[in-house]
């Protein structure tokens, strides 16, 4: 019997316009009314994840930064798994050597050193999800989306990294050349056994502590709630979702997901533009998966 649902956001819970559809919303609310815990498990920072949930009227727990942090439905911090200073410095050195733009997700929010580069990367994400629109339209949509997000722009990350009150949770880098450019960088990063390298889209790499994974975080939350992993439903579409799909008793891959995700999950859902999450939740409950 499903007692906890953990859903990815981008490419999964969110439709092509980065919002939660009415079908997904109603299925989530119905599950919550039945006493089933629902939470998002996302690569996003909690300040980036919250607006879409609030707009849909969904109050739930959050696993953020690929498992670097977790919050209960009231917004209280449950745990943090951050990167050490030495690891951060090593990763930054490698990314700079490869001339890659990157951002830092921290306990004080997301930091970026170029608004223009951030805008271009969000526009690329929008364009990838809505193939028929022009890049100019994608830029306009991305610009509007940025206005809803709390991001701190700095000229350099040097001063931030000197602060003792801030912990780096995740480093994310982008390239419009996709894995052709990022693949070799990932291989270089993999040599450090204390980090976990994954991606949520074809144009990015995400670097976390080796223990900051969605699967570990979902299990941690389930343990805190006294819920067995056999009673957990996980839904995702990309590489950073694999660990929770492997851990959960019931797992759905999105119809728009990567092939390896489909191969890993037990069931296949509809796409993110066709209420895939909502339909998966409804099926899991009705069929007692």
From TrEMBL:
One cellular component (GO) term of this entry: cytosol
InterPro entries found in the cross-reference section: Cof (IPR000150), HAD-like_sf (IPR036412), HAD-SF_hydro_IIB (IPR006379), HAD_sf (IPR023214)
Coiled coil: none
GO molecular function terms noted in the UniProt entry: magnesium ion binding; phosphatase activity
Keywords: Hydrolase
Protein name, per record: HAD family hydrolase
Organism: Vagococcus vulneris
Lineage, opening ranks: Bacteria, Bacillati, Bacillota, Bacilli, Lactobacillales
């Amino acid at each position: 019997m499903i007692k906890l649902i953990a859903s990815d956001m981008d490419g999964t819970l969110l439709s092509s316009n980065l919002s939660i559809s009415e079908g997904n919303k109603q299925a989530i609310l119905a599950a919550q009314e039945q006493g089933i815990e629902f939470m998002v498990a996302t690569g996003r920072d909690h300040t980036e994840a919250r607006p879409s949930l609030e707009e849909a009227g969904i109050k739930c727990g959050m696993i953020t930064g690929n498992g670097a942090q977790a919050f209960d439905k009231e917004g209280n911090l449950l745990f943090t798994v951050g990167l050490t200073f030495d690891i951060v410095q090593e990763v930054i050195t490698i990314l700079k050597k490869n001339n890659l733009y990157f951002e830092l997700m921290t306990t004080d929010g997301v930091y970026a050193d170029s608004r223009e580069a951030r805008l271009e990367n969000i526009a690329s994400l929008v364009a990838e999800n809505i193939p028929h629109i022009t890049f100019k339209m994608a830029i306009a949509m991305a610009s509007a989306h940025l206005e809803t997000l709390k991001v701190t722009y700095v000229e350099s990350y040097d001063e931030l990294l000197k602060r003792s009150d801030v912990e780096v949770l995740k480093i994310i880098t982008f390239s419009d050349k996709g894995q052709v450019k990022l693949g070799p960088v990932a291989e270089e990063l993999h040599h450090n056994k204390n980090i976990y390298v994954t991606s949520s889209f074809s144009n990015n790499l995400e670097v976390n502590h080796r223990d900051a994974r969605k699967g570990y975080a979902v299990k941690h939350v389930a343990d805190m709630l006294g819920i067995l992993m056999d009673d957990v439903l996980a839904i995702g579409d990309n590489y950073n979702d694999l660990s929770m799909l492997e851990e959960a008793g019931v797992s759905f891959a999105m119809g728009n997901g990567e092939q390896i995700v489909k191969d890993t999950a037990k069931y296949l859902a509809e796409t993110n533009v066709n209420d895939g999450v909502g339909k998966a939740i409804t099926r899991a409950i009705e069929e007692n998966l």
